[in-house]
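Q: Sequence in, structure out?
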Amino acid sequence: MEGDRLSGGRTGPTPRTLPDAEALARAAATEVLRRGRRAVRAKGRFDLVLAGGNTPLALYRALGRGSSARSSLWSRTHLFWGDERIVPPADPASNYGTAWAAGLDHLAVPPEQVHRVPGECGDARRAAVIYETDLRARFPGAAWPRFDLVLLGLGTDGHVASLFPGGAALAERERWVAVAEGGTPAVPRVTLTLPVLNSAGCVLFVVSGEDKARMLERMLAPARLDPVPAQRVRPARGDLLVFADVAAARGAERMR
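A: Exactly. Output:
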């Protein structure tokens, strides 16, 4: 496992390759539990940022069943989201709603420790302010929050969270949460900003599918003058992990 780690953003990560999407989900779930227990031992709580999109849903299903779901870790866990669409929780496009339905509803996380974006308010700017206010209350006095683990997917265009290539949110250097537009469906969104991602104790990319192979290869290559957002995620004082199934890792394997 330690060989999969990038510390301080100084060297390129070596992806851990899993045989299929199910094995990928199990490995990622194991890593979430490991990081969570470490955080609870160190500071008494686990601050976990969840990813949206389809790929992480298998991970949430893995966390929500068996001994994982029964772990005492969850009573000490605070859940956050890396981005959200401005839709109600019951909308199929809601990252919170789909994650919860996939298996997180089986975890004994106290309701007051679930920090979701209020997408139902219908106003992206207002939702961003409310969410950032909540985050600042959880990390009082911090220049940037230091989450223990941030989960990220990888878009085929290289976007992470809702930080899209060329988007204004990608350049934000003061706010913790920014308004963003892009992706599918094309609805207003809010997203954690790049300095927040790069302040994490660990960022774990979970990448699945042949359609991600070309972008994963680019993400792991030396950054060019126009790096895609995924290439700009390099924790300053943390670890960068990349877990990918064989289909997604095909291009990365050619780089070795």
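DSSP finds eight helices and ten strands in the chain.
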